[in-house]
TrEMBL record, chain A:
Protein name stated in the entry: Transmembrane protein
InterPro entries associated with the record: YfiR/HmsC-like
Keyword entries, A-Z: Signal
Pfam families: DUF4154
Amino acid sequence: MKEKVVKLCKCIFLFCVLFAQSGHAEEEVTKERKLKAAYVLNFIKYMSWPVNSGAQNEFRLCVHSDEPFYQFMQALVARHNQGANKVRIVIGHTLQEPLCHLAYFQSSIEQSLGQLRRAVVVLESLDVKQVHAAIRFYTQAQKVRFEFDIAQLAKIDVIASSELLKLARIIR
Amino acid sequence: MNKLSSFSIVMCITAGSYSSLCMAQSTPSEFAELSLNELFEMDIADDTAKAVAGSPWTFAYNFKFAEFRGYLDGDAKRADSEVLWQGQGTQRSDENFPILPTVIDQQVHVFSMGYRINADWRVHASIPYITQSTDHISIVPDYDQFTIDSDGSGDAVLSVSHRLIATSEDIWWFTAGVSLPTGSIDEKGDTPRDVGNQQLPYTMQLGSGTYDFPVEFSYQSMGKHDFSLSMSAMIRTGKNDRDYRLGNSYSLSGTYRFNATANIKPFLGLAYQYRSAIHGQDDEITLAGAFPYPASITNPRLYGGKKVSAEMGVRWKFSETYALSVSFSKPIYQNLNGPQPKENFQSGITLSRLM
């Protein structure tokens, strides 16, 4: 029996070492990007979309990013949907979704996309160039900040609450 | 029961770790619950969340206690006095025996660990340590009441989980593994069969003695309601050195978790399990003559059956990386190949380190 246990321990150790070496560690999302993801959830809470947009029933959040960020955003959305929030959010990849109420871009997409026609476009940083962008993240003094293009929001009839606007840098 | 239990525990830990990664009680949920003003004040360099950023390793310890008491033949109860053969002058049959186990207690300590290779692949290893005892009554002189014990490590399970589908609505995992015959099938004790120690019946052995293959499909809802479903099986192969193979088992289970608070989740579950009888026979525990089985638990045909169990419990995430779960389950329907000792209840406690 003792021999069996020793043999087993060796097997488990070898098994773990092999997998630890062959499997690459999962790429982590930086805290800065996690904060931006959390901001996106708050944007949805503190902004109002037109009644005929359907956002009140099922909010379509589109994300164009690397997979770790997408998965983190997906986990946030799952948590949001399990809470007592009125708005149910459905997350999808921007290029695959037929409709977006809010679209987050880590990098730009050059082609014109019909699903973004009435979307609030949020850019991960000032370096990302995307047409019709309404919100851009930037960092200042080690904190995540964002700027709002009020004119762009007005074009798509989306209203940001005063609580949100007072934290934003406003571009008119 | 040992091997399916330990595999199930690993699966629960996997699901639990993942659900906590994705939902109420881990890094994403912390960020999901931050208010606008809290976000505004947070420093990107102040990486307080680093500790919970997600180690790829999980560790868990599970303690499970099960008690078997009373007899069922099909779904009909049999009194101990019916199953115990009363000796000369009364009729002996295939359904009564000179030795009768009255209470079987089983304690299983499962140590397991998991490693997340990436978002879609995980590996797990677990090993149980089993302590069990059976109280008996018999008509054999000097053995009118006696207890047999056995303890030691059980069968180790290595498994791999692959995430098949992941959307904002649900997640599907497939897990397959191998159960290694590391548990003893040569446990001995003093029985009325002879003087000194003899080979013990199947229930008192610690392993299966065969290479077995656990598989599971599991579903985790990511919608408003937090529930999971799973279909699992333990497929056993070949025959062990004692010329028998434990029965395959198949189960379907569902668990619904309630959002009591951010860190405490009570849950309710329902499980159906089918297990087939033992194939083959250990001839060392039988007797010569017309009635070869001195106790029901020495007859390989009197194993297996169907069982529906209800479960309740609570999971408490008491720190950033650790959770404690306590559960209690009781069969609400059993239809056994009997006469066979019936399960009375199971309870468990699990301490796990989350991914």
